[in-house]
Write a structure and sequence with these properties.
- The protein has about 110 residues and is an all-alpha fold.
- It has one domain.
- It is built from four helices and no strands.
- The longest helix is centred in the middle third of the chain and has 25 residues.
């Protein structure tokens, strides 16, 4: 997959995760919010696995960051499962994902 396609897919997945979480949190449409969130989480998991696969020739630091993002995106998958089980602990996992994402965004490649 091209990098541009992955960036678009990541953006769409992030918007879907955010929209699904907001809908679930405020009980707008309880049934559809779980599916919106799950679709976004699945797309982010696919994006991060693909980026990790494509980063075989990158340096070790970049590969480690991609592996951490895979681990963080799996939190979104588990939180989607918890949404379907009507467990409120999904919020904690989404917050952990957000914290890891913010941390890793500051640890990106240094531009010269």
């Amino acid at each position: 997959m091209s990098k541009n396609y992955l960036n678009i897919m990541q953006l769409i997945g992030s918007v879907l995760v955010f929209a699904g979480a907001v809908f679930q949190l405020f009980d707008f449409d309880y049934a559809i919010s779980k599916y919106i969130f799950s679709l976004g989480a699945l797309s982010l998991i696919v994006v991060y696995f693909t980026q990790n696969y494509q980063a075989k020739n990158e340096d070790k630091r970049t590969q480690r960051q991609y592996r951490l993002m895979i681990f963080a995106s799996l939190f979104l998958g588990v939180s989607a499962f918890l949404m379907f089980k009507n467990d409120e602990r999904w919020v904690v996992l989404v917050l952990v994902y957000a914290l890891i994402s913010v941390f890793l965004s500051f640890r990106g490649k240094k531009r010269e």
